[in-house]
Each structure stands twice: as structure tokens, then as C-alpha cells.
Write a structure and sequence with these properties.
- This protein is α/β, with parallel strands linked by helices and about 290 residues long.
- It has two domains: about 200 residues, Spore Coat Polysaccharide Biosynthesis Protein SpsA, Chain A; about 70 residues, no CATH class.
- The chain is built from nine helices and eleven strands.
- The strands form two sheets. Strands 1, 2, 3, 4, 5, 6, 7, 8 and 9 form a nine-stranded mixed sheet that branches. Strands 10-11 form a two-stranded antiparallel sheet.
- Strand 1, helix 1 and strand 2 form a beta-alpha-beta unit.
Length: about 290
């Protein structure tokens, strides 16, 4: 890949962030030319905002309300395109690179060819087990079907071809919807197996490193948006959605078993998710 054509911007999505977001940003800020900090908080933390504004590389933008993950990602991508950047790093507020992983990640372009076919370059999650810590294997990569939002380099030229992140989903499945649209256009998702990103759970409750307890509202989004994805992509990716289906059943069981206090509320939100999918009602959840 020709490094002369590479210019990297970044976007981080904020929602009631904690102070450690500054440390997380510092783990990769030196590798981007500008970082768009899109704040979806209803009540922004002034102390954190002031600290962000001290860094000349950070462009802070407050939406003054939660407009959803997809909207914030699109804001970042459009701003990057306006400034003629070729790649956009997408990060969650709870994610960071540790040790030399950022250095390896942002120097990965020399290891890749045919960049015009690569929609996303992604790091592996710190909790992943399929990696080899030896430096000589650091650039082992594979093609992937899906990737989480955080720790991605988004090809902005292909973003224009693939289309924007689907804002009606609000949260959940926003990343996977973009991934599958990219694949249907015959673009590639490249995952570096041994370059790791630490993605913490934030305020979620964890049963173990792979099983999480979610709020009833989050269960609503997961249900509605999973059904949307199933209806849109099952024909093209049946094996993927068979695994998805099993994962969803497991997730619901875990949430009911380990959070029995909220069983009724979560069951209602599952039904509401089904209802709104059938009614083609998307966007931010409204209690009605």
C-alpha cells in the first residue's frame, strides 16, 4: 500500500464518559492527525471537556443529546472527508491500545496490498484467544465477516461507495450492518490477529468475559435490530445468522437467569422489539 496516499483522522464517540477516557485517547492520539470527539451526552462533563480541548489535535463536538452511535460515526466520517482524509480510526470511549499495539496497528499499511478493496482494517480484542504474542507474527491477518466499531481503520473512499452507517438502528448492529454491506459490494475486512485493543466493559455487568447483563432498554435495541439484520442479510449469510441466532438465545437466557429482578421488564422490551420491527419503527426508543 502506498503510504504517500495515507492520511489518518479519528473519531471517538462519547456518552457520559469517565475521566479515564483521557488516558484511553492518549494511547493512540499521536498516530492520527485529528481526532473528532463526538459527545452524545445530554449533560456533558465540563472537566473532561476542558481536558479534551487542551489537546490541539482534538476537535470536540457536542450534540447535546444522544443521537446514537451511527449518527456520531457519520458525523466523524463526513468531517474527515471534508478535510480530505483517506482513513478514519473509529474508537469507543472505553477502548485503548496497550504497549506497542498502536505502533504496530498504524504501521500496518506496508503489509497490505490492494487497499482499494479493503473497507476496514481492525485490531483484535484483548480477550481474544487466537493470537500469537511473538513479534515476528505480529502482522498475521485474516479476512473477517464482522468487526466491532472500536479499533477500526475505515477506508473513507469506500465509505462513499458502501453508504453511511444506518442511523435508524441507533445502537446495536450498526457496525455489523456496515460490515455486511461492505462484503456484499465485494470489499474486504482485514483483521490483524495479534494486534490487540483493550475494550473494557464500561458500566455493563459481566458474568464472565463473554457474557454480559444488559439493561431492559438495551435488550429492546438488541431484539429489534437483530430481527432487522436477520430479515436483511439471512439469505446472503445463512451460516453467520445461524450462529447469531444461537448467540441471541444464549444472551436472553443469561440475562433472564442472572438478572431475575428485571425479568418482566426485559420480557416486555423483547416484545416491544418484535412489535417495532413488525411496524417498521426504528430510531431512538420512545416509551409508549
Amino acid at each position: 500500500m502506498n503510504n504517500k496516499l495515507i492520511s489518518i483522522s479519528g473519531v471517538i464517540i462519547l456518552y457520559n464518559p469517565e475521566l479515564n477516557v483521557i488516558e484511553n485517547i492518549n494511547s493512540y492520539i499521536n498516530y492520527v492527525d485529528i481526532l473528532f470527539a463526538i459527545d452524545n451526552s445530554e449533560n456533558s462533563n465540563l472537566d473532561i471537556i476542558e481536558k479534551l480541548k487542551l489537546n490541539p489535535k482534538i476537535c470536540y463536538i457536542s450534540n447535546n443529546e444522544n443521537l446514537g452511535i451511527a449518527k456520531a460515526l457519520n458525523q466523524g466520517a463526513e468531517l474527515a472527508l471534508q478535510k480530505n482524509f483517506s482513513w478514519l480510526l473509529t474508537m469507543d470511549q472505553d477502548s485503548k491500545f496497550e504497549d506497542d499495539n498502536a505502533k504496530y496497528f498504524f504501521n500496518c499499511f506496508d503489509k497490505l496490498e490492494n487497499s482499494e478493496e479493503i473497507a476496514l482494517i481492525c485490531a483484535n480484542r484483548q480477550s481474544a484467544t487466537n493470537f500469537d504474542k511473538t513479534t515476528e507474527n505480529i502482522y498475521d491477518f485474516k479476512t473477517a465477516l464482522i468487526a466491532i466499531t472500536s479499533g477500526n481503520l475505515l477506508n473513507l473512499e469506500l465509505y462513499k461507495q458502501i453508504g453511511k452507517f444506518e442511523e435508524k438502528l441507533f445502537i446495536d448492529q450498526v457496525d455489523h450492518d456496515y460490515n455486511l454491506r461492505a462484503l456484499l459490494k465485494n470489499y474486504k475486512i482485514i483483521k490483524f490477529k495479534n494486534i490487540l485493543i483493550n475494550h473494557s466493559l464500561g458500566k455493563q455487568v459481566s458474568v464472565n468475559e463473554k457474557l454480559f447483563i444488559h439493561s431492559p432498554i438495551r435488550i429492546y435495541y438488541q431484539t429489534r435490530n437483530f430481527l432487522y439484520m436477520l430479515s436483511k442479510y439471512f439469505f446472503f449469510f445463512p451460516c453467520l445468522f445461524f450462529r447469531y441466532g444461537l448467540s441471541e438465545i444464549k444472551r436472553i437466557f443469561i440475562n433472564f437467569y442472572f438478572d431475575r429482578v428485571n425479568i418482566k421488564a426485559k420480557f416486555r422490551k423483547i416484545l416491544e422489539g418484535f412489535r417495532d420491527f413488525i411496524l417498521n419503527k426504528y430510531g431512538k426508543y420512545e416509551n409508549n
